[in-house]
Specification:
By secondary structure, the chain is mostly helical. The protein contains eleven helices and no strands. The chain has one domain.
């Protein structure tokens, strides 16, 4: 299979997922409404302190929502296949698992970025926040590059619904909750107990949050953001192949044990 055919194969999975969004557009509206209300509620917690605290908390809510979307779209892709009754056909199709997963990952990043930008725009209008001095292009770049790291973690999480038909998809929330705890989504990591704090420095979400807050609150330029961008890029280039390796091992095991079926 040549590179052009592989690229078309990945794009086909992106198109399929967009088609699923159109098919269940009502549910998408519900989920987006939930994310928006959640971000607004969290922003209101800091409303009495000042607009800076509102932005601080909203960035946490936005990154948390972005991470949740990536985990959901990547790990739930297996559950979707089972629910649609196509998991056997997809996994036995003459296309590499790399193309299949990269297509789903690309879709998750694009969809997550669109939803995150929408949430930020609504929050800015709701609270009347001025973002004239913010580095919005830098914010966008950080969001996209951090998606690579989150994709790698999402591929590892996707193993759970692959191996467990009944509860695997729900088990992915364990990893999400761990990242929520250690990454400083709604607080500085300095408040964490000393024994758990080192885990924060291993989480890509920690650096994503710091960089996005610097871009929004301080208007940090690309020269200041570049070290974090390169770090997140390197982390993504490490985690994505690792996630692929873990998923391939799990797929081999699932096929051997006959777990690629719609139910049971």
């Amino acid at each position: 299979m040549n590179y052009r055919t592989q690229a078309y194969g990945s794009i086909a999975f992106v198109e399929r997922n967009f088609a699923l969004v159109r098919r269940y557009i009502g549910w998408e509206a519900v989920f987006i409404s939930y994310n928006v209300v959640n971000a607004l509620a969290i922003g209101l917690i800091g409303a009495r302190i000042g607009k800076e605290m509102v932005v601080y908390l909203v960035v946490g809510a936005m990154v948390w929502g972005f991470l949740s979307i990536l985990f959901h779209e990547i790990s739930e892709s297996i559950a979707w296949e089972r629910w649609e009754g196509t998991i056997e056909y997809t996994f036995m199709a003459p296309i590499s698992r790399f193309i299949h997963l990269i297509g789903n990952c690309l879709w998750a990043v694009v969809y997550g970025v669109i939803r995150s930008i929408l949430i930020l725009a609504i929050v800015v209008l709701f609270f009347g926040i001025s973002i004239k001095g913010a580095n919005l292009p830098g914010l966008f770049v950080i969001l996209v590059v951090s998606g690579l790291s989150f994709v790698g973690l999402g591929l590892v999480a996707a193993v759970l619904p692959l191996l467990s038909t009944e509860k695997g998809a729900y088990a992915t929330h364990i990893l999400e909750a761990a990242l929520l705890l250690i990454s400083g989504v709604y607080y500085e990591i300095d408040v964490l107990p000393v024994w758990i704090r080192p885990l924060s420095y291993a989480s890509p979400a920690t650096y994503t949050l710091r960089a996005m807050r610097a871009a929004l609150l301080d208007g940090a330029g690309f020269d200041q953001l570049m070290p974090t961008i390169l770090l997140l890029l390197a982390t993504g280039l490490l985690l994505v192949p690792l996630g692929m390796l873990v998923f391939n091992k799990a797929e081999y095991y699932a096929k051997k044990k006959g777990k690629l079926k719609r139910s049971g």
